[in-house]
Each structure stands twice: as C-alpha cells, then as structure tokens.
Amino acid sequence: MAITNWPADERPREKLFAKGAESLSDAELIAIFLRTGAPGKSAVELARELLARFGSLCALSAAEAAALRAMPGLGAAKSAQLQAVMEMARRVLRERVARGSVLASPQAVRDYLRLRLQDRPHEVFVGVFLDAQNRVLAVEELFRGTLTQTSVYPREVVKRALAHNAAALIFAHNHPSGVAEPSRSDEALTSALKQALALVDVKVLDHFVIGGGAAMSFAERGLL
Predict the structure, then answer these.
(1) What is the DSSP letter of 144?
(2) How does pLDDT run across 9-47, given as a tens digit for each residue?
(3) Shortest CA distance to 82 belongs to which of 146, 118, 35?
(4) Average confidence (pLDDT) over 188-216
(5) What angle do CA 97, 98, 100 make, to 5 degrees?
(6) Which of 27, 82, 107, 217 would bridge with 47, disulfide CB 3.0–4.6 Å?
(7) Could you tell me which of 34, 48, 132 has the C-alpha nearest to residue 84?
(8) How many CB atoms lie within 10 A of CB 177?
C-alpha cells in the first residue's frame, strides 16, 4: 500500500510534523529522504530493506557507492543522495568537534570517530591533531590496513604532528571484527606512540577502539 493511503498519523512526514523527527524510526527517517519507493513497495519498505541488507544505520552510512546502487529500487540518483546526507552527518559532527575544546566535548569526539570508522571493511588508523587549547587542527587517516591489522609507524606520526604544530593527539582505529576491545599489540602501539611523541613534547590524550557500535577509550580504561 502506498504511504499516501496510510492513516495520516502513521505517515512519516505527518508524524514528523506532529511529534518531531526524534519520534521516527530509522526506516521512517530514511523514507522521508527517499521520498518514493520502488515498484510494489513503499518508501518505508525500501528503507527497511536497506537497513536489513546493511545491518544498521551506522553500517549504511559507511556503505560503498556500488553496494548502494546494487540495491533494487535505489538506483544511482537515490544512492548518491543517500551518500550525500550521510556525509553531511559526518561533517556536522566534525564541525562540532572542531568548534570548541575537545576536552569540553568528549562525547562529540567519540561520536564523530565512531561514525567515521564504524563498519569500515578494513582497519583504519586516524589521528586527531590538537593545539595547546585542545582545539582540533586536523583529522587525518594516517594508515590503512587489512581486515585484521594495519601497520602504524611512530616516526611518520611524529612527522605529521610536527607538520601541524600539534600539542596533543587523539588516536582511533576500528576493529572490523566488531569487538571494541584493545589487543596487546594495540596497547604496545599506544605506548610506543606516546613515548615517541613525548620526545617532541606532544601529548597523547586518548586512543579509541571502534567496533560493534561502541568506542572503547584507553584513557577511561587507565591504559595511557
């Protein structure tokens, strides 16, 4: 049944106007964005299929363009629009992080890194470079690896920190396995990075491990 034939209080757009966007499910939010469905299915049904195919809204945000275009009923135009809105969400979080002190908004940093790294098919190691007031200077993908590991070189990280004239750094990497727990090698790497950066008077404030919808903080675990 087309959405226009639904009771008014069940239609996503009318529900949004009456109760606010926070009252909508993930599928209903995507449906409003898609506007139309596909032959034989409403926009909400198409949105539900997208979520079922990719597993979550977060996973959908990280989906590759080819995977989106391959979804029946989505096509090139809608997949491009969907990628654009997901990138907008990432940039909004990045702006929130960059506008103020990282120490004053640790949740914004965590949310941004989780959205950026969650459900990536390979390991990615990211650095957030900060000035002396803990304001964001730059966010860089420093190294990219395989499904299970990546190689991180402290010397190269030190070079990037000096290039940005950074006073502090926050690191983050993802675990494609979905387990947000640090390995022994993660702990050893963090210690090596901390020691190398201390030689040029750059502090390591935290290291997040992203996976399974969670972000584990080294600082909160007392591992720094």
Answers:
(1) E
(2) 677 888 888 888 888 888 888 888 887 877 778 888 888
(3) 35
(4) 93
(5) 80
(6) 27
(7) 34
(8) 12
